[in-house]
Amino acid sequence: MKKKNVLNLIKYYSENNDAGFRTEAYEIAKAFDKIGDYQLAEYIMALLSEANTFVPQVEESDLTYVKKSEKSTKPLPLPDAIKEDVVGIINAVGHNIGINKFLFQGPPGTGKTETAKHIARILDRELFVVDFTAIIDSKMGQTGKNISDLFYEINQLPHPEQVVILFDEIDSIALNRTDTRDIREMGRATSAVLKGLDQLNPNVLLIATTNLYSYFDKALLRRFDSSVDFSRYSREDLLEIAEIVLNYYLPKFKRLSKNVRLFRKIIGLMDPLPYPGDLKNLIKTAMAFSNPNSEFDYLRRLYQSVIGETPSDKFKTMQSQGFTVRDIEILTGVSKSQVSRDLQESK
Prior knowledge:
The chain is α/β, with parallel strands linked by helices. It is built from 15 helices and 6 strands. It has helices at 3-14, 18-34, 38-50, 80-95, 112-122, 142-155, 183-198, 218-223, 235-249, 260-267, 276-288, 297-307, 314-320, 325-332, 336-345, and strands at 66-69, 101-105, 126-130, 163-167, 205-210, 226-229. It has a 6-stranded mixed beta sheet. α2 (18-34) runs antiparallel to α3, α6 (142-155) packs parallel to α7 and α9 packs parallel to α11 (276-288). It is elongated, with a radius of gyration of 26 Å.
């Protein structure tokens, strides 16, 4: 702990700057923890969690850079490895020791945004999403200023311990500062993000997502307490997720019937299997466009979407893909007897 920390603490207290006061007190607690004085560090954190300090009230209509968002109630099928990381995040936040910044990285459609929404629901916190359209500005230096204002707005939110801030696709404002295509402006923006993360109220839970992890500034990565890789799906994970999506959407279409065995055969034709977001769109679209008077028309449409063009010798091709005569009847509308005759003739 340095003299500057004590002076800042007094300064923030005299200014009724709750966010600054808490942040500085948290830094002091970290300093004591680092030198092994764990009891004093825990005592300071306990006082912070119980303190009834000044909190400036902010009306939602006054917010410029963050917007309240709905929390998710949809099924969130995740591989066990990612589930364990999510449980770890929830546990870490519950310990209330300032571990509050997390980065979700991975390809599009892997469930990063939905997971953030579910965490807000599980923790019973309000979810606010950063509005990047209000931040990015073509004027030189303005984006960096807007980012500074964004973090100020976040730190002034009432009841920070009840808030989740989602930076969805944070790469919109923070990429490698050595990017030669726009080194000065991106450098300013990224530096503003670094400063904002350093000064973030420790009671605010911040989750950022990105598809461009490899392009991130290393200094930025160090600001996050933990990073979760959302690309860890096995083929079996994706097959199970496809079935969960089927079971979720099928009851919404009263005249459609379920045939899990055939459904899994069709999905299994894809190699590699798409990530959950694309799987959901594929399955949902097949159902939405299906003939309501045909109980299995969605499976036919799904098959066509998966294989692309219909093969010229479709019965023989479908048989080689592992479909039975009954399966082929369902997918083509041709009777089993006719399918069997055509298959015999093609030998």
